[in-house]
Amino acid sequence: MTSAGGRPVSSEAPAKLNFYLHVTGRRADGYHELDSLIVFAAPFDRVSAVPAKDLSLELSGPFAGELNAAGGQNLVEITARRLAELAGIQPAARITLDKQLPVAAGVGGGSSDAAAALRVLTSLWQLNIDLDDLQALALSLGADVPMCLHGKTCFAGGIGERLEAAPALPDCALVLANPGLSLATPNVFNARNGAFTAPARFDEAPADAAALAEILAARRNDLEAPAKMLAPVIDDVLHALASLPGSRLARMSGSGATCFALFDDCDAAVAAAHALRAQHRDWWITPSRIIHPV
Ligand code: C5P
After folding, report:
1. Dihedral sign from CA coordinates of 34, 40, 44, 50
2. Quick check: CB of 25 below 6 Å from ligand 1?
3. Which of 133, 147, 211, 212 has the highest CB neighbour count under 10 A?
4. pLDDT tens digit string along 136-191?
5. Which of 164, 199, 231 is a domain's end point?
6. Ligand 1 centre and the CA of 28: distance in Å?
7. CA-based radius of gyration for the chain
8. Are 204 and 80 part of one and the same domain?
9. Are the C-beta atoms of 11 and 119 separated by less than 8 Å?
10. CA 198 to CA 294: how far, in whole Å?
11. Last residue of a domain, one of 133, 164, 195
């Protein structure tokens, strides 16, 4: 994060991927309980802020239009107001959100933006907020916001807010692909039926992409089937990713529709992304890598 002192304070908001996602139960309030391996990856949105007399939000980047078109209040703006309320101050900042990640796409873009806004505004407003209070605020903004605030590879339990350390993952590369489709998370959860799945955490640190793919192949994303029912094109994305040279595993992330494939290294992922783009010019396709924050 860039330091304050007249200059903008800025924070990256990476993509959040669910390497596996088991739905383990359902609470009385309708939220689903999960066991999921959470990983952060490129590309990033970026949230920046400078001091101002009141609160404003400007959007830029390839997916800014979708947020405008969706109308209503942006989660970054809601985050700013709620943080100021918690701190007992007036929300005043000129915030910019550079939207590089697809919207409603299963890569946690909105949650990651909200977490970045919490980091940026805590610094800009020089707040000293108790960590438990900040996590509680994060959870009230969305079930995935606490994990994005945490920002590190982890296992998530509860409805996504109970975070525990996961074994170190190898430095492997990814291709992300989205067929240009927004899926509303509640619709996907509601379309899920059948039994719940047991948690499936693991202790061993996989040595390379092959070992990681083997571990993940024994697990799954329970939201894949309901998402495919709502959007059958997801099956095409998964087949296309699985067929790419060097692809070790293809899976949907979160509630979709973005899917990822795992590769040994960046060269393989870049070549595969290039090949996939030639076949599907209307899909959002990008090579990616796992981020290992210190
Ligand atoms: O918390 P968030 O606003 O991101 O969740 C959006 C919706 O997704 C919830 O209202 C709920 O329908 C569904 N959801 C769920 N179980 C979770 C997370 C989200 O059922 N663990």
Report:
1. positive
2. no
3. 147
4. 999 999 999 999 999 999 999 999 999 999 999 999 999 999 999 999 999 999 99
5. 164
6. 13
7. 19
8. no
9. yes
10. 31
11. 164
Does residue 173 share a domain with residue 160? no
Which tokens go with 105?
């796409």
Query: For 196-237, what is each residue's pLDDT tens digit?
Result: 999 999 999 999 999 999 999 999 999 999 999 999 999 999
Taking each continuous run of H as one helix and of E as one strand, the counts in the chain are 10, 10
Q: Ligand 1: which of 24, 26, 31 to mutate, most ligand atoms within 8 Å of CB?
A: 31
Give, as one character, the DSSP assignment of residue 194. Answer: S
Which ligand 1 atom is at minimum distance from the Cα of 145? 4
CATH number, domain containing residue 144: 3.30.230.10
Q: Which domain range does residue 277 map to?
A: 167-289
In a domain, 221, yes or no: yes
**Which residue in the block uniquely carries the two structure tokens 């190898």?**
170
State how far the alpha carbon of 226 is from the alpha carbons of 193, 203, 235, 237, 254, in Å: 8, 29, 11, 15, 12
Alpha-carbon distances of 16 from 45, 59, 175, 229, 272, rounded to whole Å: 11, 20, 14, 23, 21
